[in-house]
Write a structure and sequence with these properties.
Blueprint (H helix, E strand, L loop, with lengths): L11 E6 L5 H8 L4 E7 L6 E6 L5 E7 L5 E3 L1 H12 L4 E8 L1 H4 L5 H9 L3 E8 L3 H8 L4 E5 L1
Parallel strand pairs: 1-7, 1-8, 2-6, 6-7
Antiparallel strand pairs: 2-3, 3-4, 4-5
Helix pairs in contact: 2-4
Length: about 150
């Protein structure tokens, strides 16, 4: 189990792997009870994805595939998660599936800004390898430790 407190080493840790490389599984195994969120699916085809609060275990619908196979995003889930994270003043926050939405200023982007701009916060973020460079630029590579799965 991860210690859910501020680390004096590196403020930001990135769990990175290719698509389906085990990032969410790693977070669920090591970070239950921590402040933050994971994106989980109840079916192998990932038709519906839920945002799970790691502290409480509560789940909210996040995305659902339509008939054409495209995801329809539930913006209310991101509003809820961002409000929870942006109320944090200190400690560690865990966010799973930081990806293209955040690189476009959507999804968890407000939370990422809060994490970056609040020195008393640290974070563990899961990031796909193909997005890693954007996150290194956003947070500053000197503040980052990369954990490759």
């Amino acid at each position: 189990m991860m210690r859910c407190s501020h680390s004096s080493m590196r403020r930001f840790k990135f769990i990175t792997a290719p698509h389906d490389g085990g990032k969410t599984r790693w977070i669920l195994e090591h970070c239950m009870g921590c402040r933050g969120f994971a994106s989980v699916s109840v079916d192998a085809g990932k038709k519906e994805i839920f945002l799970m609060n790691l502290e409480s275990g509560d789940k909210r619908p996040l995305m659902r595939r339509n008939d054409e196979g495209l995801y329809i995003v539930n913006e209310d889930a991101f509003l809820y998660a961002n409000a929870c994270i942006m109320s944090a003043a200190a400690g560690t926050v865990v966010l799973d599936e930081c990806g293209w939405m955040e690189c476009s200023g959507k999804g968890f982007y407000p939370s990422l800004e809060h994490l970056r701009d609040t020195p008393s916060l640290s974070a563990l973020l899961s990031v796909r390898l193909d997005r890693l460079e954007w996150y290194l630029d956003f947070f500053g590579s000197g503040n980052v430790r990369i954990i490759r799965l």
